[in-house]
Amino acid sequence: ELCQYKVQDYSIRTIDLNGNRLDADLSFKCSNTVCPIGKSENGNFDGQFPQCVNGFLIAKAEGYADAKVQISTNEFGSADVILKPKHELDVVVLKNLIRLEEGESALLVFSNDQRTESILYPEQDKISLTEGSYKVTSYLFKEGSIVLEAQSVEKCVKVPKSGLFGLFGAERDECATISQP
């Protein structure tokens, strides 16, 4: 219901790292609700937002990483959103580092403070990343099958003895065999 009550004027400017104006799709997240706001034209948007303290303005533009800025829309305000360009990179450097045998593949995860991207190598050999430092984690997979053999396990628990001895705390072991196919 929050999205129905856009009552607060707000001004947004969307730009790239060089200050060039960008057209971007805008949405606003308040708590767990995401409201579509509109699109900036020639890098500008003047419109109404639902009132919210410490919500997130989200800007999306093709060829750029999504940008998120925390704003409070309980009174008139303005915000600049800077979108970072994505660069498509070949993963050829990894061919020398990761020597895969037939039937093997590697899941490569590139992560930093703002985002995480991943590819399955060698099926994918390109990745789109923004400028910055990344931690690269790799997981190696090999085609094959896993066979789990059937097993039987005996479980025992202590139960009170029947009769007069059970009243005084005497116990006996009761065991059962559990079979897993």
Structure description:
There is one protein chain. The protein is mainly beta. Helices cover 5% and strands 55% of the residues. The protein has a 4-stranded antiparallel sheet, with no helix packed on it. Strands 4-1-7 form a 3-stranded mixed sheet, with no helix packed on it. The protein is flat, with a radius of gyration of 29 Å. The mean pLDDT is 88.
Helices, by number, come to 2
Q: What class do helices, strands and sheet pairing give?
A: mainly beta
Whole-number mean pLDDT? 88
> How would the global form be characterised?
flat
Over all CA atoms, what is the radius of gyration? 29 Å
Order of helices and strands: EEEEEEEEHEEEEEHE
Q: Cα distance, first to last residue?
A: 52 Å
Spans where pLDDT lies below 50 across 5 or more residues: none
Number of strands: 14
Major sheet details: 4 strands, antiparallel
**In which order are the strands of the major sheet placed?**
3-2-5-6
Helix content: under 10%
Secondary-structure blueprint of this entry?
Elements: E1 6-16, E2 25-30, E3 33-39, E4 44-50, E5 55-60, E6 67-71, E7 77-83, E8 87-90, H1 93-97, E9 104-111, E10 116-121, E11 126-129, E12 135-142, E13 151-160, H2 164-167, E14 171-180
Parallel strand pairs: 1-7
Antiparallel strand pairs: 1-4, 2-3, 2-5, 5-6, 8-11, 9-10, 9-12, 13-14
